[in-house]
Amino acid sequence: MENTSQKNVILITGCSSGFGLLTAARLAAKGHKVIATMRDFNKRAALLEEVERRGGEIDLLFLDVTDKDSIKKTIEEVGDKYGYIDVLVNNAGYGLGGFFEDLDENEIREQFETNFFGVQNVTRMVIPMMRQRKRGKIINISSSAGLSGSPCFGAYNASKWALEGFSESLRYELKFFGIDVLLIEPGTYRTKIFYENARYGRNFYNEGSPYHPISRFMESRVKDYVDDCHKDPEEIAILIENLIKAKNPRFRNIPDIETQTQAFLRKLLPFNIYSMLIHKTIFSRLKLPEDEAYQIK
Ligand SMILES: NC(=O)c1ccc[n+]([C@@H]2O[C@H](COP(=O)([O-])OP(=O)(O)OC[C@H]3O[C@@H](n4cnc5c(N)ncnc54)[C@H](OP(=O)(O)O)[C@@H]3O)[C@@H](O)[C@H]2O)c1
To answer: Is residue 10 within 8 Å of 86, Cβ to Cβ?
Structure first.
């Protein structure tokens, strides 16, 4: 059962590009009250152009998910204008690349500050508004990286796995108050997360690192994979729109067939076999130097 006529007040984080931008523009064109937030107004042009192109209106507000004052100010502004928030889309995030030994603790903590604590920071300030009205949906953008580990992206994996665990627990806690918590777990979509917004650890390019040849391999492997990826990121905006409309939406939502297959195989296969498949898929073309460092006896 869908309630298609309902227009909602929807707050979205990270709307300067990618899924956030497309979702904000799509939902605004459908007549929802969209509070599109971003942490850098210098990047607002792309969103405003897309909103104008599709027709619709948004409120554009500043919000950095790691800056609690900015969240408080924005939520207060929304409270003053609308009095409530129906839907929160926790979308802001980035992916840190680098092998564990090449990452320092601060880099990993920063990854968590955005992808995990950032979600909690915003969610914590939105829940009371939803609880008062006994309704609301919190949609957390996780990732296929929250379902399956991969080399070189352990920090990103860990932040999204943490988000998965948090979301599952929060879902039970908020059910008492009529608030639904949902997860979206996309595979790879070609957005700025892999280009302008890509982040690698400081030691990722360190030629002295024992991981250096594997890092170089991974960098080009990821680039080739992403360049070759033709899925439309609008699929995520459509999925979010459908989850907002749905009366009883599923908790876990995997939009793409690749990730659906991966999740199925991970459940079905013994982990040793599953991880061997992943290892072979990623590293089949890796040629390591004939160096003693890589000879396993
Ligand atoms: N694309 C994929 O293949 C994929 C797959 C699975 C999951 N995801 C997830 O989808 C979400 C959106 O990613 P995307 O692909 O749309 O990438 P994107 O185009 O790089 O967009 C990321 C957005 O997050 C914002 N952001 C980063 N740190 C922030 C902070 N501290 N406060 C507020 N905003 C912040 C960025 O703002 P700035 O422009 O200011 O940096 C940008 O607006 C992320 O959570 C990502 O992990 C993406």
So the answer is: yes
| Host domain of residue 16 | 9-256
In a domain, 39, yes or no: yes
Identify the band that residue 167 occupies on the pLDDT scale cut at 50, 70 and 90.
very high
Residue 296 lies in a domain: no
pLDDT digits (tens, 9 = 90+) for 209-266: 999 999 999 999 999 999 999 999 999 999 999 999 999 999 999 999 999 999 999 9
Which of these, 266, 265, 280, 256, lies nearest to 184 by C-alpha position? 256
- Is the CB of 154 within 6 Å of ligand 1? no
Q: Are strands 96-97 and 199-200 parallel, antiparallel or unpaired?
A: parallel
Cα angle 291, 296, 297; round to 5? 120
Residue owning tokens 């979702």:
23
Pairwise CA distance, residues 152 & 82, whole Å: 43
Residues 95-107: tens digit of each pLDDT: 999 999 999 999 9
List the CATH number of the domain containing 148: 3.40.50.720
- Nearest Cα neighbor of 84 from 133, 31, 137 is 133
Whether ligand 1 lies within 6 angstroms of the CB of 140 is answered as no
* Ligand 1 geometric centre to CA of 91 (Å): 6
Number of domains composing the chain: 1
Task: Determine which one of 82, 84, 94, 156 is catalytic.
Answer: 156
Residue 269, in any domain of the structure:
no
**Domain contains 287:** no
